[in-house]
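Question (not urgent): is this output format expected?
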Amino acid sequence: MAPTFLRHRRPMLALKSFLTKLYQHLLAMVFAVNEINNNVKILPNITLGFHIHDNYNDAKVTYHKTLDLLFKSHHYIPNYKCGIPKNVAGVIGGLDSDSSSRMADILRLYKIPQISYGSFESAVSDETRFFFYRMVSSEAFQYVGIVKLLLHFQWKWVGLISSDGDDGERFLQALEPMLSGNGICVSFMERMKKNLHVDNPHAAIFHFISNNPDFLETKTNVVVIHGDTTTIVALANILWATKTLSFMMEEEYVQRISAGKVWVTTVQVELALTIILKFFDIRMLHGALGFTIHSNELTGFHKFLQTVTPFWAKGDGSIKDVWEQIFDCSFPNSMDPTNLNETCTGEESLESVPAPFFEMSMTGHSYSIYNAVYALAHSLHAMYSSTASGRTKENRGRLDVEPWQLYSFLQRISFNNSAGDEIVFNDRGELDAGFDITNVVTFPNNSYTRVKVGRLDPQAPAGKEFTVQPDKIEWHHTLSQVPPFSLCNDYCHPGHSKEPREGEKFCCFNCVPCPKGRISHQIDMEYCITCPEDHYPNSNRDQCIPKTPNFLSFEEPLSILLICLTVFFSLITALILGIFIKHQDTPIVKANNRSLTYILLTSLLLCINCSLLFIGQPKTWTCLFRQTIFGIVFSVSVSSVLAKTITVVVAFMASKPGNIFRKLMGRRFAHSVVISFSLVQVGICAIWLSTSPPFPDLDMHSTFGEIILECNEGSVTIFYCVLGYMVFLATISFIVAFLARRLPDSFNEAKFITFSMLVFCSVWISFVPAYLSTKGKYVVAVEIFSILGSSAGLLGCIFFPKCYLILLRPELNSREQMMRNKN
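Got this back:
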């Protein structure tokens, strides 16, 4: 059946300020009731009706009309039902919080469910909560969306404008801590007075400027607006008066005030744009971003609006008033005798009306009303179905409802509307539908449209509750940059950190370069951070660069040079060993103790090749053995030199008749000297490996930008004991050889040993400061040079003179020549 207006009421607002957009709210209710009455699956054989009342935005009238909903009589006696009570199952109403709370004061007494379609009023008590529902998400969630929007565009310096009342104060007290907690500062807060009109615009502007000097600053490019119609009208007065009084003000002020700003509006401001459109230039709000109640297009709603005419339904006392305002015409029996407009024909179409005055697409508030009607209908249907089995055949067409019975059904109701959205109330009686984010786009003919550019959805997966499409946003044409900056000062670029300014808000700061060794890789970092141990700061101190490994690799030129020297000295040593073996029966070779010579040359050959263990990336086995093998082998070499020195002295002493040293002559004595002195070094190395062995290690800090891959010696004390013991053996050899330097030439190898030990000690004594002063791979290179240098010293001083005689002066390598030298 067609919907019927059960009660004729006066227009919703006075003619001069009637918002034609509100008429779509009424039509959305009619559309929903019409669908339900024609749907055999919901409340079959039952027809829904409705009453529509207007409170004229007046508290007293709100109470009066709420009572009128409950009783037929126009005389009211509290707590007494005078006359025939109306069969009211539920109430849909409350565009704002004030109206909703006043209606709830009465409805809760009679336990009648109320569904507010635009109010953010929360239940004030448990008793009220059972019968108060809202078709919008909580206002706190809207504040979350505002914060997310500001953070998305990195707006950290914003202004707040609200109404001068309880709602405005709650808004400021709730939002400001949330902004501060997210690093956003409020540059100014203004509570708009309701009596701020254009009667004295010059005074109004200077009053606003004097109270909010930061509004003039171009860095405050974003202003959040909350409040009712009077708030947005008062702001429009300020902006409009700026243009009209430009000749009375300094041009600088005019330009700074009229410069484009990004206005961020709340849901409460949505309907106020129509009033601005009627009395002001709407282009001042071009590019504004607003939160609106979530809506979806409903199948058939557009076609339904096309059928609306001034005579479309009996009892609609508002349609003619709306028609006259929309089409600027009048009916013959118009209530305004001064109306000289053209006569309304009734054939006009709402589809021809510009969208700012009447939208053919469903708005958020109309969508909430539509869902509220269906929520009541589904609850009634559920209650009817649960009791239908006990009804008589005659009563099955009637629905005797006690309003309090609907509570349990409304609380559990869950369904999908025709647009596919799920309708279900949470435990606080709210519909978690979220909000749409819209962009106000204005046109030169002083019209505008809202473009949906984002969504705030509490039911979305975590991290995806807020979405916005910046490419769809049209910004104000006077903005020099889009999206604009709204900061107390410029960003601190990477490589700098923020330093607070004394006496100013935390959003105002100085940018200081990061100290040495620290970086900042993002804008506006509170403090610089230290790079991980395996990274180091670049020159701009805005990123960490991986450190390069530092070790003596085989591919480096220095390593190739050392390898070539090692091979060269190894070949020389092998060549000398071959010469001595080939000429082992010659007097010179025999006179220098052939077995000790072979031991010395072999140990030198091994020692020279030990330097190869120091090249390449340190590994566990190379770290364990390179120092110990080198220490033992080199100790054998030095012990052999010491044995040769002692042998020379003993041989000279034994040449005297009856000397006791004659018994010490022989190979066994020389070998015992080598073995005994070498075993001491073996014992030191064994203790080293068993107590604190060397191991591969990483040095992150010694060299900037590099990771030194090294062998940690474990116990540095034992390491120096190994080196010190070799120097000790060399020192003894040097002393003994020095004292025996004047022995006859035929036995005199002491002077060559003296020079070799002098070279050996010089190399290893100079090794210590060089080892301590170098870092990374150069430490290894110093030790290799010391090994090769000391080995070369032994070869050069001890064996080169003999090789010279063997190869180049063979005539001197004879017994007769040696005896002649002795005599």
